[in-house]
Amino acid sequence: MAKIGIFFGTESGRTHLVAKYIAKSLGDAASTPIDIGRARLADFLAYDALILGSPTHGGGQLPGRSVAACPPSWQAFLPQLAGADLSGKVAAIYGVGDQKQYPGAFVDAIAVIQSTLLASGARVVGRWPTTGYDFAASQSVDGEHFLGLALDQINQPGLTGQRVESWLAQVRPALLPGM
C-alpha cells in the first residue's frame, strides 16, 4: 500500500490535475488520487500521511453541495473528521484559487481544512511563502506564509510545477520519515 494518501475536491478539474501531478512526482510512495466526494472515512484513516487539495469557491467557501452545481466534496466530508482521532497522522494541504477574481478569499479552503485536521489531532506541515502572489486577503495566511501550498492555475499556471516540486521537497521528510 502507498504510504501517502492523496485526496482532493474539485469542480473544474484543476485540483485533480494537481493531485495527479503530485502522485506522479511521488511515485510509489503515493496513492492514486482519491476524490473526497467518493471517499469514505475508512479510506482516509488508512493512511498515516496525507496530501489534501481543495479549490476555494467565491467568497471563501469549500466546494460541496451548498455551492451551486458542485458534487459532494470537502464540505460534506469534513464533518466526518470532527469525531475522528487523527493523532499520529501528518498532513500537507494545497489550495487552488484565483487571486485576481477573488483577491479577498484566495485559497481560504486551506485554513478550513487545516482547522478541522488540527482539532482532530493531526499534525499539519507545508507552510508556503506569500511572496510572488497578488491578492488582498486570505484566511490561509499566517504572517508571511500560507498554511499550505497556494496555487493559481488561472493567472500563474506556469509556476505550478516549480511550486509543487519545491513544496514536495519541503514536506517529503515529514510525510515519509526515514526515506
From TrEMBL:
One Gene Ontology MF term = electron transfer activity
Enumerate the spans annotated as Flavodoxin-like domain.
Answer: 4-172
> Do you know which SUPFAM superfamilies this protein is assigned to?
Flavoproteins
Gene3D superfamilies, A to Z: 3.40.50.360
Looking at the Swiss-Prot or TrEMBL record, what is one Pfam family this protein matches? Flavodoxin_1
Supply the alphabetized keyword list: Electron transport, Flavoprotein, FMN, Transport
The record, for PROSITE patterns, names: FLAVODOXIN (PS00201), FLAVODOXIN_LIKE (PS50902)
Residue spans crossing the bilayer = none
Purpose: Low-potential electron donor to a number of redox enzymes.
Regarding protein family, the annotation reads: Belongs to the flavodoxin family.
Name of the protein: Flavodoxin
- The scientific name of the source species is Candidatus Accumulibacter meliphilus
**The organism's lineage?**
Bacteria, Pseudomonadati, Pseudomonadota, Betaproteobacteria, Candidatus Accumulibacter
